[in-house]
Every structure is written in structure tokens, then in C-alpha cells.
Design goal:
The complex is a heterodimer of chains A (334) and B (68).
Chain A lengths: L1 H30 L1 H10 L1 H6 L2 H24 L5 H8 L3 H9 L5 H22 L2 H19 L8 H18 L8 E3 L8 E5 L9 H5 L12 E4 L18 H12 L5 E7 L2 E7 L8 H7 L2 H14 L3 E9 L2 E8 L2
Antiparallel strand pairs in A: 1-2, 1-6, 2-3, 4-5, 5-7, 6-7
Helix pairs in contact in A: 1-4, 7-8, 11-13
Chain B lengths: L1 H15 L5 H19 L8 H17 L3
The chains are: A alpha+beta (334), B mainly alpha (68).
């Protein structure tokens, strides 16, 4: 461990020395005409690497990395800089992967970014035309911006109003009953997602087959449960879900990009327990019975996505609203 | 689309003014980028890596230009 930390410290010191050398070379190149002539005759690339902007950009990046490493060194962390950054910014790895994914319309953005990079490098090193370099940089900015935008822009208050309206049908059905926590049933043979709502507040164990055979309407006073269509009952038919998206990507697609129910989604899974964090979640719905049994609108949609992906029944254990964040805990049932 | 127009206009404007300093272009790009982001507030799939990168490098270049 001590040799590992010594190695880390040596790398940091070397980086600082490199930055110092770069600065010294820059000063020397500016003051020493002979060095400039030699570089232009023997190593023209050196002239560009020793331009003030290139030196500032390289040194700035190296210094930020080194400061991060030194902070870790001083605070006694055993992790490397990359591990620490990945740990602190949860989901950054997934976000970078998401940014780099080149499915569908993103391919044109990748082409634009590639063209911009080639144009900027060619103009900077060979043509020496600054406006063309800037044009290349602007293409890179546009390409990356296009990559960071959602696949499809939708949602908004209209979509939320329609989803809330869809709740009211189920709410009317449950209005006269005492209801327990619902179990979301995965789709069978490409069918719809159902939710089994137990009638009565006492929890009871019931097999998946019996849940599926429950009636879809109120038929009598001794009825033990009811099958309802939750708001997200048709979510398994989304074509993009056939591409092998992860749970977080699916939830982001439904909750952020399509329904605009929240601004960000984070998922943690430990065994059969799945915790979904939703930033900026909008949970205000009118259906009290729906909320008590199937959860709030974003949680209900999330449960449908989870049931579809894992092909297992899912139940919402609880949900907590903490300032603008909603944290919902789900359990996969066997 | 608006961002593309803004960036192109920036390049045309500065090159018409015979500006040869790349940091000036990047600073103007940063301004345009954040102005467009502020007005349209687009939803993003990720953290705004482009904005953070532009902000960092333009701040660095401006600091150097002012001799800080």
C-alpha cells in the first residue's frame, strides 16, 4: 500500500514538473529566435504545441487532474482518482456510456463531431486559419450537444394531464374498497402489464397464478383481489425496449424523456430490492386509492418498467418524498 | 438549430472583424451556448459535459488573457 501511494505521489510530482517545463519551453520559444527556427525546420508540430493556448489547455487539464489526485492523497483515500470521481458522481459511467451510444439519430451527431474534429485539426496544424478552426470547434460543440439531447422530445403538462386522467378510471373502480399494496404482474405472451390489487388492508400471500386469475371487476363482497390496468400497462410495447436497454435507461426513457415526470433517474439494485431515485418528480395525483395501492404516477410507471424488464412480479414497498426527490423502493417477487 | 445559427454567426462575425485569437471564438461560443441553454432549457440525457468543458476552457483562456 505504501509503495502504491509513493507511486501516486511520484506521478503527481512528475505532472507538476511537466507543467513547469511546458511553461519554461513556452517562455524560451517566445524569447529564443534560434529555438523557433530550429523547431520550424525540424519539428513544426512543436510550434503549435508550444503556442500559448495549447500550453494553457494542456497545463490546465493536467493541473486539475493533479489537484484531484493530491486531494485524494491528503485525505487518505485508497481509491484512484477515476474510482473516486466515479463513486462521487454516481451514474457518471452510465452517463458517459449513454452519451457515447450511437443508436439511431445519434449517428449524424457523431459524423458532425468527427467532421468538426478533422476540420479543426487540419485548419490548426496545416492551413493555419483560425476561423476555420473555430468552425470545427463549433461543429464539435453542436455534435456533442446533439448527443446529449434526448432521443425523443415529449412530455410536458399535457402528457402528465393525460396520464393523470388515465388514473381516474382505476380510481373509480377502487373507490368503494379498502385496498392493500398492489403487485405488478409482468406481461404474459406479449400482453399487457396488470396490477393485482388486494381488497382489504390485511396483507396476504397469494400465488402468481391466482393473481392472474383474479377478476377484472368487482363481482362480490367476498372478493379477495382485483386485476387492474395500471397507467403503464402497455409500456412493454415500446420498440426501443427491444434494444436491450438497461433498467436505468428504460426508466429515463419513460419518466424523463417521454412522460416528463422527473428530470433525472438513478437506480440501485441489491438482490431483489430495487431503489429508484427520481429528481424533480411530480407526484401530485388526484386518485387517493390509486396512490395508496399502486403508488404515485412515477412510481407506478417505474414498477411497470421493472416488471417488464425482470419478467417478475413487483411490489412497491414504500416511497418517500424528500424535497424535490422521490425515492421509491420496489421488491421483486418470485 | 438556434445554437447552430448562433455559433455560425459568431464565427462569421469574428472572422469579419479579423479576429485571430482562438480564445475569443471559444469565449463567444460559451456565451452563445449558455444563452441558448438558458432560454430553451433543453432536457438532457446526461450531465452537461459540453457546457462544463466550454466554461472551464473559456475561463482558463480569459484568465490568461488578463494575465491572472
Amino acid at each position: 500500500m505504501a509503495s502504491h501511494r509513493l507511486g501516486e505521489a511520484l506521478i503527481d510530482i512528475q505532472t507538476i514538473i511537466i507543467v513547469g517545463l511546458l511553461y519554461w519551453l513556452l517562455r524560451e520559444e517566445q524569447d529564443n529566435a534560434f529555438l523557433r527556427t530550429w523547431l520550424s525546420n525540424n519539428f513544426p508540430l512543436g510550434l503549435y504545441l508550444l503556442s500559448p493556448l495549447a500550453v494553457v489547455a494542456i497545463s490546465g487539464t493536467l493541473l486539475v487532474l493533479t489537484v484531484g489526485r493530491i486531494v485524494l492523497f491528503v485525505t487518505g483515500s485508497d481509491r484512484t482518482l477515476v474510482e473516486e470521481v466515479l463513486l462521487r458522481l454516481k451514474g457518471l459511467k452510465d452517463q458517459l456510456r449513454e452519451l457515447a451510444s450511437t443508436k439511431g439519430s445519434s449517428s449524424s451527431a457523431v459524423v458532425l463531431t468527427g467532421f468538426g474534429t478533422a476540420l479543426a485539426l487540419y485548419s490548426y496544424f496545416l492551413l493555419h486559419i483560425v476561423p476555420l478552426v473555430a468552425l470545427g470547434v463549433s461543429c464539435i460543440i453542436l455534435g456533442f450537444t446533439a448527443l446529449s439531447l434526448p432521443r425523443r422530445i415529449g412530455g410536458g403538462p399535457g402528457m402528465r394531464a393525460m396520464l393523470q386522467g388515465a388514473i381516474l378510471g382505476v380510481e373509480a373502480l377502487l373507490e368503494q374498497c379498502d385496498v392493500g399494496r398492489a403487485t405488478y404482474l409482468p406481461p404474459e405472451n406479449g400482453g399487457a402489464i396488470f396490477a393485482y390489487v388486494p381488497l382489504g388492508l390485511q396483507p396476504e400471500t397469494i400465488s402468481l397464478d391466482k393473481m392472474r386469475q383474479a377478476p377484472k371487476s368487482l363481482v362480490g363482497n367476498d372478493q379477495r383481489g382485483l386485476l387492474v390496468y395500471p397507467v403503464g400497462s402497455e409500456l412493454n410495447r415500446i420498440p426501443e425496449f427491444q434494444d436491450g436497454l438497461s433498467l436505468e435507461e428504460r426508466l429515463r426513457y419513460v419518466l424523463v424523456e417521454s412522460a416528463d415526470m422527473c428530470s433525472r433517474v438513478l437506480v440501485e439494485q441489491t438482490g431483489s430490492l430495487i431503489v429508484v431515485g427520481m429528481k424533480g418528480a411530480k407526484v401530485d395525483i388526484q386518485g387517493e386509492k390509486y396512490q395508496n395501492s399502486l403508488g404515485s404516477l412515477p412510481s407506478s410507471l417505474a414498477a411497470c418498467v421493472i416488471a417488464t424488464l425482470h419478467d417478475k412480479p413487483v411490489t412497491l414497498m414504500d416511497e418517500r418524498k424528500n424535497s424535490d426527490r422521490l425515492i421509491a423502493r420496489f421488491r421483486l417477487l418470485e | 438549430m438556434i445554437l447552430a445559427i448562433l455559433l455560425l454567426a459568431s464565427v462569421v462575425l469574428l472572422s469579419a472583424g479579423r479576429v485571430q485569437d482562438l480564445s475569443a471564438y471559444i469565449s463567444l461560443f460559451t456565451l452563445c451556448y449558455f444563452a441558448a441553454s438558458f432560454v430553451f432549457r433543453p432536457k438532457r440525457r446526461t450531465i452537461d459535459f459540453v457546457g462544463l468543458g466550454l466554461l472551464y476552457y473559456s475561463a482558463l483562456f480569459i484568465a490568461i488573457a488578463f494575465g491572472l
